[in-house]
Amino acid sequence: MTNLAIIGAEKSGRTSLAANLGRKGTSSDVTMYNNDKESRKMVFVDPHGYPKAIKPLITALNISDMAILCIPPDGLDKNNPASVHTGECIVALDLLGFKYGIIALTKSDSTHMHAIDELKKKIKLMTAGTSLQDWECISLNTNKGAKNPFEGMEELKAKINKISEKIEAEQAELNNLPARVFIDHAFNVTGKGCVVLGVVKQGISKSKDKTKIFPLDRDIEIRSIQSHDVDIDSAPAGTRVGMRLKNVQAKDIERGFIISDKEIVSTDYILECTISKFTRAIETSGVLHLFVGLQSEPVRVEKIMVDGQEVKEVKPGSTCVMELSGNKKVAYSKEDRFLLANLDLPQRFVGYGFPK
Ligand code: GDP
Ligand code: MG
Q1: Residues 195, 220: Cα–Cα separation, whole Å
Q2: Closest ligand 1 atom to 48 CA
Q3: pTM of the prediction?
Q4: To which H or E segment does residue 330 belong?
């Protein structure tokens, strides 16, 4: 099973592509498109609430194993206001260290070969040194009325399948770890009780498991598990699941809650941070937005240390230790990558960090 995020700026062709690859399912600020017709089941996640908000983008990426970055013919034009969001998506993927993906050069029917080659060159320059530097570019369209309708779509599917093999091999190795399930939706179903949707990030989650939900830190039991509407007894790493839970109500669950035996729960953080080259200096007492897993919340910068010295500000492209304080309880593990953002800047991603 592979979960893919289809991202890009507004009008980059994300929704058209997702709708072409799967059947529409759950929808909130992200929409799931399922494909269970092929031997490999896939879920395509369209963060349609982006670029208005960045939370849907992070949600889509953190429940996915692979990304398709959509860039339309004018996606990098300086005078196109949407180009800042193409850049922002590249920064987000790089800060997340996102390994697997494809760059879809969308709307190929509305441009020409020479322009596509120029766009590829621009992309090569922009992604050099980032986690996207080796991603393949595939020129495609989803326009059935085009001279060359659905050009590139078969090539895209073949490439997705090839990358999925690598991802599945990596996921198999995660099965030995303790089970962790990231929840993205929770609701009450009459006669069934609390149902959550999410993805098994590591380990194998089993029906009848007695485990906990965080940051509530409450004992729960997994009553039953479904994947693509079929009942299953156990869900290995990478599986997108629906679960019925005992001893918790849907109204008490927020996006990002984690089903696991053990998590750290905190409102304050000390992170070893790497600040993006594509942001401004960060000052103490400023407010940033923190993302970890599928959780997010505003935090205050309490203290910045560079090379063991307390400083007033940290420059783009450097590393530091940052102390942050928030109000809401957040659950995470030591290996989890935190993302930091400044919602007041045009390119909103600021850096990433790991708990010290
Ligand atoms: P999103 O905002 O990224 O989700 O983009 P949409 O998928 O909604 O597409 C934006 C606009 O571009 C719509 O009017 C689509 O009909 C159009 N569009 C999307 N894909 C293609 C394509 O391959 N060729 C052409 N000509 N138009 C497209
Ligand atoms: Mg859309």
Answers
A1: 13
A2: 4
A3: 0.97
A4: strand 319-332
**How many CB atoms are closer than 10 A to CB 176?**
10
User: In this structure, are residues 281 and 313 in contact, taking their beta carbons and an 8 Å threshold?
Assistant: yes
The per-residue DSSP string of 200-262 comes to EEES-EETT-EEEEETTTEEEEEEEEEETTEEESEE-TT-EEEEEEES--GGG--TT-EEES-
Query: Which of 10, 11, 27 has most ligand 1 atoms within 8 Å of CB, for mutation?
Result: 11
Output the pLDDT for position 217: 98
Nearest protein CA to atom 27 of ligand 1, as residue:
107
Q: What span, in angstroms and rounded, lies between the C-alpha atoms of 173 and 262?
A: 20
Residue 48 Cα to ligand 2 midpoint, Å, equals 5
* CA atoms of 123 and 213, how far apart (whole Å): 42
* Ligand that lies nearest to the alpha carbon of residue 19, given by its number in the listed order: 1
Average pLDDT over residues 27-40: 94
**Percent of the chain residues topping a pLDDT of 70:** 100
Which residues does a 6 A CB cutoff place in the pocket of ligand 1?
8, 10-16, 106-107, 109-110, 141-143
Give residue 147's identity as a one-letter amino acid code. K
Q: Which helix (H) or strand (E) holds 158?
A: helix 153-174
- Which class for 158: exposed (0-12), middle (13-18), buried (19 or more C-beta within 10 A)? exposed
CA of 13 relative to ligand 1 center, distance in Å: 4
Nearest CA owner, ligand 1 atom 1: 11
- Judge if ipTM > 0.95: yes
Instruction: Give the distance (Å) from ligand 1 centre to CA of residue 329.
Output: 40
Nearest ligand, measured from the Cα of 12: 1
CA gap 320, 304 in Å, rounded: 7
